Structure formats: structure tokens, C-alpha cells
């Protein structure tokens, strides 16, 4: 007798019956192979998982590439203050300041002027806004003037100190606003706003010391 085993079952079969013995060995082999295939992921599943892993790894890189190509989100469609404030929250101060440069289109400069008052450090936009106020653009100049006046009126002395804003920087802005206020080519409303902004900023600047008096004239040199 031959004791053949397959899994946990034991069979007593006649040794001389080679056909039965061969059938048992074949059956056991098939059962073992089936178990291995059930426990092992298929080739297609493994390849799919690998492809998914590569896709997941590449997705952040693709998003970063898209972000790099589009430096700014799509601009808002209206000038509502809340909409503009949310827009500025999504970008950096430097990105908004870049909209005020001469190489931008008038529409983008106007957008930058509208957004400037919502910057973390809005005084940084005042030099560019002063330049735009003096420009002949009839759409950008008044928007820049309104924004400059709003920024000046929103500033606090302690905030300027915390941000390290220097007195020479403020004096330079005041001088630029004064030039716009005295310009004969600027519109009346722009001159008014420039003068108002300069007056507000002047409160944050200490008065310059008066020049020291010269030496008293010599009484002897005056003569009778």
C-alpha cells in the first residue's frame, strides 16, 4: 500500500495502481498551484499598481509646473472689496506689486492699483501708485489716486515701526505726492487725493530741525 498525502487528507491506495498514484500527484500539484496563484497578485494588477504609484508621484510635480506657468490666479471679475481681499490672500505682496510695473497692460496695472490697499504692507505700493497717478492714462491714474489715499489713511504709526518703514522712505513718497498735487497736467480730483495722502503721511515723519542761526553780526564791523 502507498500512503499518499495531499494537504491534510491521507489516502491509502494500492501501490501497483500507477494510474491512481499519478492522478493523486497531479491533483495535489494543481491544488498547490491554485493556492499560490490566489495568494500572489496577478501581473496585470501589479503593473496597474505600479502605474498608479507613478501617477500619484507625478501629480504634485504636474501641479507645481502648472502653478509656475501661471504666476497669478485668474483676476477677479469685479472690484468688490471682499473679492479683492480674497484675491490678495491667494497671492504674495510681490506678485501684486509686479502688476504696477510699466511692462504690464493698463488692465493689469488697474487691477494692481485696486488690490494694493489689501497688501500685508500696503505702503510698499505707494511709490508705484504715485507714478501711476502722474500718468496720462485716464483709467489707471484715478484708481491709483484713490488707492494711494486709502492706503495713507489706513496706516498706523506702530505698524510702520513694526515693519521697519524708514523716515527717508516716507519723505520720498511725500515729495512725490506733493509733486503730483502741484502738477498742472493732473486732474483736479487726482491732485486733491495726492495732497490728502501727503498730509496724512506727514504725520508719521518728524519735522526736520530748523537750520542753526548764523553768527551774530559783529558790532564793531558794522561801524557807526
What keywords describe this structure?
globular; 2 strands; mainly alpha; two-stranded antiparallel ribbon; disordered N terminus; 11 helices; 224 residues
In short:
This protein is mostly helical.
Describe the structure.
With 224 residues, this protein is mainly alpha-helical. Helices cover 61% and strands 4% of the residues. The chain has 11 helices and 2 strands, in the order E-E-H-H-H-H-H-H-H-H-H-H-H. The chain has helices at residues 18-39, 43-69, 81-89, 93-98, 106-115, 126-133, 140-154, 157-162, 167-181, 188-202, 219-222, and strands at 2-6, 9-13. Strands 1-2 form a two-stranded antiparallel sheet. A hairpin with a 2-residue loop joins strand 1 (2-6) and strand 2.
Q: State the helicity in percent bands.
A: 55-70%
| Global Rg | 40 Å
Extended strand count: 2
- Poorly predicted regions are 1-25, 27-49, 51-70
Nearest-integer average pLDDT:
73
* Cα end-to-end separation: 157 Å
Main β-sheet description:
2 strands, antiparallel
Order of helices and strands: EEHHHHHHHHHHH
Coarse structural class:
mainly alpha
Query: Approximately how much beta-strand content do the residues carry?
Result: under 5%
Strand order of the largest sheet: 1-2
Shape: globular
Instruction: Please give the count of helices.
Output: 11
